[in-house]
Every structure is written in C-alpha cells, then in structure tokens.
Amino acid sequence: MSNMQKNLFSLLIALLVLSCKTTEKQMAYKTDSLEIGTLTEHTYLHTSFLETESFGRVACNGMIVVNNGEAIVFDTPSNNIVSKELMDWLDTQNVIVKAVVATHFHDDCVGGLKTFHQRGVPSYAHQETIRLLAGNETEIPQNGFTDITELRVGNKKVILEFMGAGHTNDNIIGFFPSEKIMFGGCLIKSIGAGKGNLEDANVMEWPKTVSKIKSKYPNTSIIVPGHGNYGDGELLDYTITLFKG
C-alpha cells in the first residue's frame, strides 16, 4: 500500500469514527418505547411506536421546538404512558411545555393527549380535527383554527398552517421560521416510503397540497415526516411524485 493510499485509508477511518460520535451525540434519550434525537439547537425529533393491524409496529415521529426554557410539542407520542415519559424527560431539561399541537385526528397524533391536558398544557389543532374527534371516546384538542395561526415559544414564533387535504382532510404542517424547519407530519412522506394508510386520504388533492407547501416554503432546511427519516425539500418532491403517479 502506497503512502497516499495509507493516508486516504486513515482519513476514511477518521471520518467514520467522527460520524459515529456525531450520531451518538444527536440521540438525547432512548428507551424501547421512546427516542428523542437532536435536530438543531432548538429542535428535537421524538419517535414512539404504534401497534397497528395493517402495518404492525409503526414508528411515529413528532417534533419539539425549544426556546428560552419553553417548548411546543408537535403530535403526542402514541399513548398516554409514553407521553408521560416525554414530559418527564422535558422536566429534566428544565423546559416548560407551553403547547401541544395535533397535526391530524389519527392516534399517532392524539393518542397521548390526555397526559398533556392533565398537566395543564393547552392543545391546538385544525377546527376540522376537533370536529372529527367530537363524539369519540378520546381527548379533543382545546383550541382550533381554520387557515393559519401563530404560537410563541420563548421569543420566537411557530406557524401552524392548513394548506389543503392529503393524508386526511384536516392535516396541518408546523413551521419554525428561525431555523427553517418544518414538521410535515403524515402529509409528507420519507424518501422510499409507500403511500401508507389511505383510509381517510384525499389522493387527488394530496400532490396539489404539497405543491402549495413547496411554493410557500421553498427554502426549508429540514422537513420531518410523520414516519421514516427526515430530510430536506426532496421529501416534498418525492411526495408529489408518489401521488401524481
């Protein structure tokens, strides 16, 4: 092996080691039921697991925005027990949860809502989400909106917006402008994902809705889908193509 090859090999090993260390640092908390990973200085990805008849054990994503000792949680963990686990972890970080946002009416968004309400955390959702949950034996979000609204976390704003139907008729997105991060929820698909649960979907409107999101938020740096790996604007393109075909 030449000196140049040895140097290249050493550099490759160093990069691999650095990559492993970086990945380890990004995982802030992990148990069999809940994973919390760092996205940026002010955002975390939380992942819990939902047992389903059609798809088995499904990993479900949510997002946490933190600033100045306050937090907004997008989508609850899959049930109340894991929601308590998430809230307990936030307590260890000396963070007060100011709001929880349900991005649509399915269990992977509202399954742990009761825990948040029991701790006095106000909840927000699209008005259609509240209507769809009414009459069910489940917790209902307390505050509704129709098109767009803003919440505050510390001294920064978080945008909640309904852009149209897709995975469901009530699905919304969350956007954190200061770091250009979007929580797309189940409206947005991870790269390589299939169409998933279409029981309440509007597949005709789905690509149109995501195209509107792409036009309004063209410079989004990170997009978190409801399931699977997060990424950048390619997730929007992938979702559009998936449902146009």
UniProtKB/TrEMBL annotation:
<keyword id="KW-0479">Metal-binding</keyword>
<keyword id="KW-0862">Zinc</keyword>
<comment type="similarity">
    <text>Belongs to the metallo-beta-lactamase superfamily. Class-B beta-lactamase family.</text>
</comment>
<dbReference type="InterPro" id="IPR001279">
    <property type="entry name" value="Metallo-B-lactamas"/>
</dbReference>
<comment type="subunit">
    <text>Monomer.</text>
</comment>
<feature type="domain" description="Metallo-beta-lactamase">
    <location>
        <begin position="59"/>
        <end position="227"/>
    </location>
</feature>
<dbReference type="Pfam" id="PF00753">
    <property type="entry name" value="Lactamase_B"/>
</dbReference>
<keyword id="KW-0574">Periplasm</keyword>
<dbReference type="InterPro" id="IPR058199">
    <property type="entry name" value="BlaB//VIM/IMP-1"/>
</dbReference>
<dbReference type="InterPro" id="IPR001018">
    <property type="entry name" value="Beta-lactamase_class-B_CS"/>
</dbReference>
<protein>
    <recommendedName>
        <fullName>beta-lactamase</fullName>
        <ecNumber>3.5.2.6</ecNumber>
    </recommendedName>
</protein>
<keyword id="KW-0046">Antibiotic resistance</keyword>
<keyword id="KW-0378">Hydrolase</keyword>
<dbReference type="InterPro" id="IPR036866">
    <property type="entry name" value="RibonucZ/Hydroxyglut_hydro"/>
</dbReference>
<dbReference type="InterPro" id="IPR050855">
    <property type="entry name" value="NDM-1-like"/>
</dbReference>
<dbReference type="GO" id="GO:0008800">
    <property type="term" value="F:beta-lactamase activity"/>
</dbReference>
<keyword id="KW-0732">Signal</keyword>
